[in-house]
Amino acid sequence: MKIAISKTKLSLIVSSALLIAACSNQNNEATNTVENINAPVAKKVPHEMVIHNHTRVDDYYWMRDDSRTNPEILAHLDAENNYTAAQLKHTKNMQEKIFQEIKGRIDKDDNSVPIKEGDFYYSRQMQGENEYPIHVRATDFKGSNLEVLLDVNELAKAHEYYNVTGLRISPNAKVLAYGEDTVSRRIYTVQFKDLATGKLLDDKLEGTSGGIEWGNDNKTVYYIKKDPQTLLGYQVFRHTLGTPQADDQMIYEESNKSYYTGISKSKDDSNVYIWHSSTEASGVSVIDANNPKAMPKKFIKREEGHEYSVSKMNDWYYISTNWQATNFRLMKVNNKHLGDKTKWQDVIPANAAVKLENYELFNDHLVYQQRENGISRVTIQQLSTGKEQQLNFNDTAYSLHLYGNNELNNDALRLYYASFTTPGTHYDVDLISFNKTKLKQTKVLGDFDSNNYASERIFVTARDGKKVPVSLVYRKDKFKKDGTNPLYQYAYGSYGSTIDPYFSVSRLSLLDRGFVYAIAHIRGSEMLGRPWYEDGKKLTKMNTFTDFIDVTKELTAQGYGDKDKVFAAGGSAGGLLMGAVINMAPELYNGIAAAVPFVDVVTTMLDESIPLTTNEFKEWGNPKDKVYYDYMMTYSPYDQVKAQNYPNILVTTGLHDSQVQYFEPMKWVAKLREYKTDDNLLVFKTDMEAGHGGASGRFKRIHNTALQYSFFIDLLSKS
């Protein structure tokens, strides 16, 4: 909920609280210049927590305020922002220079590649200085009879933060539904727009996850309501256009709080799916989209440890499943055997060395995407003949995504391809000839030449003997493998999320200044298949952190970077990674940047009222079980802060973050200030209008990147 305080009143509250805090702090001397502001020193209010006969005392527990209106807390965040501004004032010119560099490489008139759905081709247009897209459609790929559906720039004018999600067109293509969030808490209001008149319908669905799916009668709508406290989407409702939301029928409620709930529609439009997803199990319920009174039916009974997803074509359901297949396999079952797993038939058999990642169905073709030894590959199979063809690409490592394949009768596969040195490229691949047609490649303005850059893929031996893949990129004329270059190392390492090498116009500002950029594909991702993920979560989570540290040591040992010029960055669970590694090996890093960092692991995972906690038990473990509590305590960044030297640290967050609450980094920074024994910089910036994803708007976001880069570059100039 947005803070219901006027800016004038808030300013008075913050100013008063700052004055009180300054008077009560003997170490803070009154100054008239922002440059001389001392680091904020938070008060300590011991809060005792006892579990498993173990007592923890959290002196900064008081910083939590779910309403986000506490004047003292807002004052402290404001003081931190002022201190950050003072400490980094001398970098403002550098920040602006980098901002302009990055912005100057971006084609301001940048439209997406049209995607066919029904009788129209849908796309997004980015124009001039606009921060947001304009959603349009046309009657053909070339853009004939172009029609504006939604100009997000106009909608965003009245808001500091604005986000649109879940655009869905009714089956008759006459009504557009979309979710809007003006706070960045990821709680959306769904609006309905009559495309003939351009006016909004009276229907308005509050408190939703943002997405809807249409029944085939053009008036039945399915959506998910969120719990306002935990922010879990857990109830599926059916709404009929023209009726009040209060009359909507709840057709499903998720009682297990470790599950997320989602909805989508089958490619043939016959079914609406309800997805039930937890970390180690999943399920699907099926609704007949032609029957506005249909109730959901379970695809099969949910089983612990069984993860699967389905797609429908004609009378068959195709199932990606880990049933007796650690790295997943593709199976199928006739719809007359719905609910009977014993009738499932192999389509793509299990392979212990190859992970099935994705697939698409067409009338006579199956396209499937697999990952082997960390490299993604796509194969096209003709169903009628069994003939197969694997697609080839030039780079040794790359990102590859299937998207926009919304119809069974397509004669081409749409995919997106990029690498460290190849800008994002969109292709249509003919399903018969396998010929690739380049539809668009992201323009990089200025003097960019991909030949100036080189990428490598190496393996680093971790302390337990496992080989960790690392992707590297650098500018050829700036790099010497002699241990003199600055090194920027990034990783995420949780939830099985795999960060493939991808192109970034922002990254060029680092490479052109001589940085070597590295992505460490540490355990906790699925870069080397599902076992790579399993070896980096719950009671093996420590491998995530030690892998990152071991990669840093080896990259400097091999001469990719100067051991005194190593910088590291990560966000969210990657922020947890940053917090853990600087507790364990602070001497390795000159500076780190932690964005929206998940650092108070134990306290958060013990509190089921905090958004997402219950869904995370199978990722981190439930600390109510002593074995997990004891293990978490060995790495939880907040609990492991100790009296030692730390690197220079930049921490950023958003007041309205729904994923990692603002008070986690706030407490962490306060405790670091108390314990650290060095004079290195520790700065903390809170965006008072944003949430987990940061600022809205394509150019506004660049300011955050420019801040981080200039922080590192400034440190480099002092090293």
TrEMBL record:
Domain Peptidase S9A N-terminal span(s) in chain numbering: 40-441
Family in the record: Belongs to the peptidase S9A family.
Top-level lineage group: Bacteria
Domain Peptidase S9 prolyl oligopeptidase catalytic per the UniProt entry, residue ranges: 502-717
MF-aspect GO terms: serine-type endopeptidase activity
Entry annotated with the keyword ATP-binding: no
Keyword ATP-binding recorded: no
Any coiled-coil regions, as ranges: none
Signal peptide positions (record): 1-29
InterPro entries, sorted: AB_hydrolase_fold, Pept_S9A_N, Peptidase_S9_cat, Peptidase_S9A, Serine_Peptidase_S9A
Protein name as it appears in the record: Oligopeptidase B
EC number, as in UniProt: 3.4.21.83
Pfam families linked to this entry: Peptidase_S9, Peptidase_S9_N
Keywords, ordered alphabetically: Hydrolase, Protease, Serine protease, Signal
GO biological process: proteolysis
